[in-house]
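Hey, I was hoping to borrow your eyes for a little while. I've been puzzling over a protein and I'd love to understand its fold better. The fold is given in discrete form, as structure tokens running alongside the sequence. I'd be grateful if you could look everything over and explain what you see. No rush at all, and the record is pasted right below.
>
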Amino acid sequence: MHLLVVGAGTMGRWFARSVAPVVDRVTFADEEAAAARAAAAGLEARLADREDSPAVAVDDGGPADVVCVAVPISAVAAVVAEHGPRAERAVVDVSGEMETAVGALRDAAPDCERASFHPLFAPDNEPGNCAVVVDRGGPAVRAVRDALSERGNHVFDTTPAEHDRAMTTVQARAHAAVLAFGLAAESVPEEFHTPVSAPLGGLVANLTGGNPAVYAEIQAAFEGADEVAAAARRIADAAGDPEAFAACYADAGAGGFGADREPGDAADPGDTGSGGPGA
């Protein structure tokens, strides 16, 4: 089975090496020819010691059994339209947005198997959870899915609407909140950090150590930052008003991350129950 990966960045390279055990040929395409050559050389070197490693090359413009689109969210529709028709068996994407992607896959390859995969982790943090929408199943998509599962990933089914709604919280709003803390925080000696501030600092470091263009794409694709800003303003406006702050506290506890907490449970592991919270 010949796999063509369109987009020779971090995610495209990850997908190629993940699916390598179930294909016999991998080719890379990228708008920058040097990136495609580097990806091919990197994968070939990485698989050199494995038996039955697939042949690796740069795209020659011909058809492929499976076409995987691994490009930024904003480019998916155009790239799928260009390269999707080259697929003879299946076309998939790993862009991270599904409503537009699934529609583009369907339009470009109506007679092929189709699936949109979203690994909810950076490649260096594998294994992890991987969402998938199987728009039209078959043996090629199943082989890809099995290959990802064999690496220890939890591949679970979803719908485009459910996925994109979830990304508003777990990506757009989460990233906005973490970056806002990073912008607002001042440097303090390590001894002052609490069970809340220390993990937040770690999240800031993790997020800002990545590629800002990737996070910009997420903010553009999913709403979230405005809601985080409005929530922060509500908390700021409640300063000096115990009742208003208590309402914020209660509403946050009843929200998506507090709904399963039993009444009376500690809201924070550092809360000592005394006049000075440990958080």
